[in-house]
Amino acid sequence: MAETTQTDITPDTPLDGGASALDEKARLGSATIGRAAIDGFTEEGERLPGGDDGTEQLGLKKHSHGNAPVIPEASRGERRRSFDLADFPPLTGQEEDWRFTPLKRLRGLHTDDLTGRAPAVEVTGATNVRVETVGRDDSRLGTAATPEDRVSAAAWNAFTEATVITVPRETSADGEVMVRITGSSADPAAQYVLIRAEQFSKAVVVLDHVGSVALAQNVEIVVEDGAELTVVSVQEWDDDAVHVSSQQARIGRDARYKHVVVSLGGDLVRLTPSSVFSAPGAEVEMYGLYFADAGQHLEQRLLVDHATPNCTSRVTYKGALQGQDAHTVWVGDVLIRKAAEGTDTYETNRNLLLTDGARSDSVPNLEIETGLIEGAGHASATGRFDDEHLFYLMARGIPEKAARRLVVRGFLTEVIQQIRVPALEERLSESLERELAAGNL
Amino acid sequence: MSTLEIKDLHVSIDTDQGNVPILRGVTLTINTGETHAIMGPNGSGKSTLAATIAGHPRYRVDGGSILLDGEDVLSMSVDERARAGLFLAMQYPVEVPGVTMTNFLRTAKTALDGEAPSLRHWTRDVKKAMGDLRIDADFAQRNVNEGFSGGEKKRVEILQLELFHPRFAILDETDSGLDVDALKIVSEGVNREHAKGGMGTLLITHYTRILRYIKPDFVHVFIAGRIAEQGGPELADRLEEEGYDRFTAVEA
Predict the structure, then answer these.
(1) What is the DSSP letter of A121?
(2) For site-directed labelling of A175, which of A312, A377, A404, B170 has its Cα 20 to 30 A away?
(3) CB-hemisphere CA count at 13 Å for B3?
C-alpha cells in the first residue's frame, strides 16, 4: 500500500474481485403448484435440489454441513424425546445434535449432577400476570415440552423448584413481563421456567440472563388457542458463563407466537428453541441475533414442527462474528409432517464475518412429508466484510469506523426491531455498540 | 474552477511473483468542465490510474504526484479524497451486506457535505435521480448492490455521481457490460451532471461506443502504462477504425 496514504486497509484482495449473489436459495411451492404434489418429492421426505454443492466464491460461502462425523437420523421427527436421562447415552461429540458443541467447555453440564445453586429469578413488569414458584411435582410442568437431549433431561431431573408465569385467559398483560435471571455460581445448576399464555391472552415475556453460570435450563412455553405471545430470551451473561437452554413451545389453534433470541455474552451459549404446532391456523415467527467475539461459542438449533394443517412459520436468524475463534452455529430444522397440508414456511440465516479467524456454521434442513403445501423454503448465506467493502464505502466519503458500524448496525438491527419493547431495544442497541467498540471496529 | 494534476505518476503492485510496475510516468491535467477520455487495450494501466487516484490500497505509488487545486491527494486517506471532491465510478461495484441503499446514500451524503441533507429535499432528489436513471423505486430498500445485475450496478454508480456532485469524476469502464439502452441511460446521467458545469470527467473506456453519447474534449491513448498519443475527439474516430494495433505493434 502506498506509504503516503493513511488508511488501515491491507492489500490482500484484488481490486477486481467481483462478489456475486449472496444467497443460496431453495424455494418450493408457488401459486402454480397450489394443491398439487411437488415433482421430485416422495412421502419419505426430500432432499432439496440444487443445494449444497460446496461452491465457494470470493468472500461468500454456501452453508456448510460441517466437517465432523455424523450419526444420521432418519427424520428429525424421530429424535428421541424422554424425561429419563437413561434414554440419552453419554455424549461423545459424534451425535448429530452435538457435533458443533465443544463439550469440554460445558463445565460438566453433560456429565455432572446439576446440584449448583440455580440463578435467581426476579419477575417485574405486568401486574395482571400470575407468577408462582412451585415444586417439581406441580402437574402443569412438562405437559408441553419433553427433553430432546441429555442436558435437557438432566436439567429436568435436577431442578428443585420452577417459576411459572401465567397470562390468564382473555387477559392482555398491562406491560412487559421482565424475568431477570441472575447467575452467581459457577457450579453446574438446573433451572425450569414455564410460561403459559392461556386462551386469547396477550403478552410479551422477556427472559433476561445476566451474571455468571453453568446452567442447564428448560423453558417450557404453552401458547393456548387464540393467544398471542412473544418470548424474548436475552443472553448478556458474563464472559465465563455456560448456558444450555431448551426452549420448547407448543402452539394452539389460531395462536400467534413470536420467539426472539439475542445472544451477546457468555463463553458458550447453546439454545434449542422449538415451536410445535398442535392445532391448525397458527402463526410462528422466530428471530435471532448473535454477536460472537474472540473465543465465544454461540449456538442455536431450531425446530419448527408443522404437525397440523394451515400453519405458517417464518425464521430469521442473523449473526455477526469478530475475532480469533469466534464460532457460531445455526441449525434450522423445519419438519412438515404428512398431516400438515397448507403449510407455509420459510427460514433464513445470514452471517457476517467481520474479521479473519472466525467460523460460522449454518445448516438449514427442510423435511417435507406432504406435497400439499403453500410454500416451503430456506436461505442461508455467510458473507464477509472485507477490504473491498471498506474501500467502497470510504470512496464515498465515509470514514473507516463509521463504515464498519454502518454495516454491522444495518445488518443486525432488523432483528432488534422485532422485539417491540422500546427500552429493551435501546439497551440492546447500546450493547451492540459496546460489542463493536470492543472489537476495535 | 478546479484542476486535477497528475504528474509523472509511477505505480506498481505487489504480486506473488514480486513487484510489477504498471504506470510508468503518467502526466495529465484535467480542469472543471472538461471531459477526458482515456482509451487503451486491456492491461495498459487505465484502471490502475483510476484506482490510484481514489486511493485503493493495493496500488503502490513509486513516484510522481497527484494534486487537486495544489493539495496533495496522495497524502489523503480514501475517504478524505472523496470528501475533497473525487469520485470513482467503479468498474466492479461491490455488494455491501447489511446496508440499504437509502441508508448508504444518506450516510455518504452526510459525510461528503459535513452535515445531514435536509430530509425533504434529499428524498425528493433521490427519487428524481432514480427515476431519471430508470432505477426501480424498491432498490432504495435493498442492500447496496446486493443481487443487482451488472447494468443495475453501473446505474447505481451514476446515481451517486448525480447525488454527490463531485468536482472530478473518474468513470472506470462504466460502459462495459451495458446494452445499448443502458448505455444511453448512463451516458445521459453523466451528461446531466456535466451540464451543471462543476465537474471534470475522466472517462476510462476500452471501446469507442460510449463516446457517441459522451463527447470528450480530449482523448488519451494508454499503452503499457504511459500515454502514447493524445488529441481531440478525432483521435477516437481513428481508433474506432484502426484499433490499437498501430500502438501495440510499435511497443512490441
Answers:
(1) E
(2) A312
(3) 8
Rounded CA gap, A64 and A54, in Å? 7
DSSP strands (E only) in A24-158: 24-28, 56-57, 60-61, 120-125, 130-135
Strand partners, A271: A245, A300
Altogether, the residues listed in chain A come to a count of 441
With contact defined as beta carbons under 8 Å apart, do A235 and A266 qualify?
yes
| A25 close to B (CB below 8 A) | no
Which has the closest alpha carbon to A292: A107, A439, A109, A390? A439
Question: Are the C-beta atoms of B54 and B81 separated by less than 8 Å?
Answer: yes
- The torsion defined by the Cα of A257, A263, A266 and A267, in degrees rounded to 10, comes to 110
| Inside any domain, residue A412 | no
- Interface check for A352 against chain B (CB to CB < 8 A): the answer is yes
Query: Taking a C-beta distance cutoff of 8 angstroms, is the pair A306, A276 a contact?
Result: no
Whether A9 is covered by a domain: the verdict is no
Which of A1, A11, A392 is opposite residue B96, by nearest beta carbon?
A392
Looking at this predicted complex, what is its ipTM? 0.96
Segments in A258-399 forming alpha helices (H): 387-394
| Span A2-33, pLDDT tens digits | 322 222 222 332 333 223 233 333 333 333 33
* pTM exceeds 0.90, yes or no: no
Question: What is the per-residue pLDDT across A279-335, written as a single tens digit (0 to 9) for each?
Answer: 999 999 999 999 999 999 999 999 999 999 999 999 999 999 999 999 999 999 999
Of residues A218, A211, A230, the one with CA closest to residue A172? A230
DSSP H helices, A67-143, are: none
In chain A, how many domains are there? 1
Beta-carbon separation of A395 and B90 below 8 A: yes
The answer to whether A393 contacts chain B (CB < 8 Å) is yes
* Residue A19 contacts residue B95 (beta carbons within 8 Å): yes
Domains of chain B: 3-100+145-251 (3.40.50.300)
Could you tell me which residues come within 8 angstroms of residue B86 by beta carbon, excluding any fewer than 6 positions away?
B4, B53, B54, B68, B73, B166, B167, B168, B170
How many residue contacts between A and B have a Cβ separation below 8 Å? 140
**Alpha carbon B167 to chain centroid distance?**
12
Question: Can you point out the beta strands (E) in B16-75?
Answer: 18-31, 35-39, 59-68, 71-72
Supply B70's cell numbers: 495544489
Task: Tell me if A390 is assigned to some domain.
Answer: no
Angle between helices A400-416 and A387-394 (to 10 degrees): 110
Q: Are strands B59-68 and B71-72 parallel, antiparallel or unpaired?
A: antiparallel
Q: Is A385 helix (H, G, I), strand (E, B) or coil?
A: coil
Please answer whether residues A85 and A154 qualify as being in contact, where contact means their C-beta atoms are separated by less than 8 angstroms. yes
Domain encompassing residue A206? 35-385
The single residue listed with the C-alpha cell 454477536 is A291
Which chain B residues are within 8 Å of A289, Cβ to Cβ? none
